[in-house]
Each structure stands twice: as C-alpha cells, then as structure tokens.
Design a protein that fits this description.
Rossmann fold, alpha/beta, Pantoate--beta-alanine Ligase, Chain: A,domain 2, binds pantoate, 39% helix, six-stranded parallel sheet
C-alpha cells in the first residue's frame, strides 16, 4: 500500500495504471475510517484492479459553524485499516494542493440539493460535488463507491456524473451498522456514553416508520409525526428534519408509492447525525 500526498504524483501513477490497462476503483472519504468505509474498499477490490482511497477533510463542504477544525483525523490508524481492507493507494493531498490561493471553480448540482441536508447545510453539496469532481479528474476511476448512509450525497453525485458525462460508474453500497443498529459514522466518536445510547433513536424511528408502512400506512404526515414523537421522547435529541421523498427527484410525497427514501437528521447533544431507509415496491 502506497500513501500519495500530492496531485502530480497521483496523476503519474494513474497514467501508468491506464497504460497497463488496469481498471481503477475510487473510494472517496474524509478519513477516520470505520467498517462502512472498509466495506466500500472490499467492494472496490472485487470489481477493479487498483483501489484508491482518498482521505481528505474537505474544508469547503463545512459551514462556518460546523466541525471542520475538530473533525477526527488519524492517518496512521487509517493507513492500517485501509491496507487490511485491500486498498492499494491512499491519496491524501493537502488543502493547499487541492485549493491553492486563487482557487475559484465550483461544481453545483441544482434542485436535488435544495431539500433535506441541502436545506440545513447551505453550500454543503456544492463543496462535496466540487471535491468529488476534482478527485474524479485526478484519479480517473472506472467505478467510484459511496455509502447509502449519505443517501442524498450519493444521488447528487450520480446526477453530477451523468450530467457531466463523466463516464464513471457510481456504486451505492448498503449502510453498515453497529450491532445495536446505529449507523456507522466518523462523527459517532463525538458522542458521550449516554448520547451513544440516545443516538439509537435514529434507527429506532426508521424501524417504526418501516413497521407502519408494512401495516399499510401510506400517509407521509402520519409516519413523520410518529418519527417526530420518538425523537421528542429523547431529551438529548433535537430533530433537524425528517422527510419522505422519492428516490429520483428527492421530492416530498404526501402519499407513499413506488420507491421512497425516509431520511432524517437529528442533533444528539451537539452532534448532528443522519440516517435513512429506502422502502420499495409501494402500492
Ligand atoms: O462522504 C464523505 O465522506 C464526503 O462527503 C466525501 C464524499 C468524501 C467528499 O468530501
């Protein structure tokens, strides 16, 4: 496993791989790896000859009051985990390398980014699509892997790749959960012991929503009210949003039909966590 920390060095390696006819899989991350990231590396190593994992805490996707400075970083730990999962290269450029003085080009996917996390975190997705577009240009992957936990992000990136004819396949892989159901996230490290227990309400309320749907409920309003009720019952929890949208346009639906994304963001203490579930085949 090689650690590459400059764009020119990464580009040189990419040229060599392309010349050798090797396919490239890219797993973009912000590091502080967990099993969710490693599952993406394992998938990539099944499908592609060379697996590149990028580790870059991207300043432009954080709002001014968000956690860019304190976002957990541990490159040594990440190197060991990425190697054990089968990554061939860690690409970890510096902020100055990615955004030199005078940097002024951004990629923005419209419409899909206006609701859900886009409404609560203005500018967030513009930062995500810009850095992912840059990573795609540098690494030139055949396939890139994203987790369903960030469902809106995955859908937005798919749209960007299609709209800009990038010729890159975007694979969305299942959310990896702790044994008790908490979705794995680098931000779980911020939770105190009590908050860690309280955080189970995210998955719990999604399971409640799924149960209601299985019992025949199709009214969005009623399902959201049940989710809100569960979140309210946990003192350290504050709902940012709970939404039921279709998985293509991310438009809110009054009545559930076809394939729906139930997504929520909840503050547990000061930590903002997200989770979601997709329900299919609704009539
Ligand atoms: O999901 C993440 O970790 C980030 O948003 C991503 C895709 C690596 C872009 O910085």
């Amino acid at each position: 496993m090689k650690v590459v920390d400059t764009i020119p060095r990464m580009s040189t390696l990419v040229k060599i791989f392309k010349k050798e006819g090797k396919s490239i899989g890219l797993v973009p991350t912000m590091g502080y790896l967990h099993e969710g990231h490693l599952s993406l590396v394992r998938a990539a190593s099944k499908h592609t000859d060379v697996v590149v994992m990028s580790i870059f805490v991207n300043p432009i996707q954080f709002g001014p009051k968000e956690d860019f400075e304190k976002y957990p970083r541990d490159l040594k730990r990440d190197e060991e985990l990425a190697t054990s999962a089968g990554a061939d290269i860690i690409f970890s450029p510096s902020v100055n390398n990615m955004y030199p003085a005078g940097y002024s080009t951004y990629v923005n996917v419209e419409t899909l980014t206006s609701g859900l996390c886009g409404a609560s975190r203005p500018g967030h997705f513009k930062g995500v699509t810009t850095v992912v577009a840059k990573l795609f240009e540098i690494v030139r992957p055949d396939i890139s892997y994203f987790g369903q936990k960030d469902a809106q992000q995955a859908i937005v990136i798919k749209k960007m790749a299609e709209d800009l004819n990038m010729g890159i396949e975007i694979k969305i892989m299942p959310t990896i959960r702790e044994k008790d159901g908490l979705a794995m996230s680098s931000r779980n490290i911020y939770l105190s012991e009590d908050e860690r227990k309280d955080a189970l309400v995210l998955h719990g309320s999604l399971m409640k929503a799924e149960e209601m749907i299985k019992s025949g409920e199709r009214e969005s309003r009623k399902i959201i009210r049940a989710i809100e009720g569960m979140i309210k019952s946990v003192p350290s929890a504050r709902l940012d949003y709970a939404s039921i949208v279709d998985t293509v346009n991310l438009k809110e639906a009054k009545v559930l039909s076809g394939e729906m994304l139930i997504a929520l963001a909840v503050f547990i203490g000061k930590t903002r966590l997200i989770d979601n579930t997709i329900v299919k085949g609704l009539k």
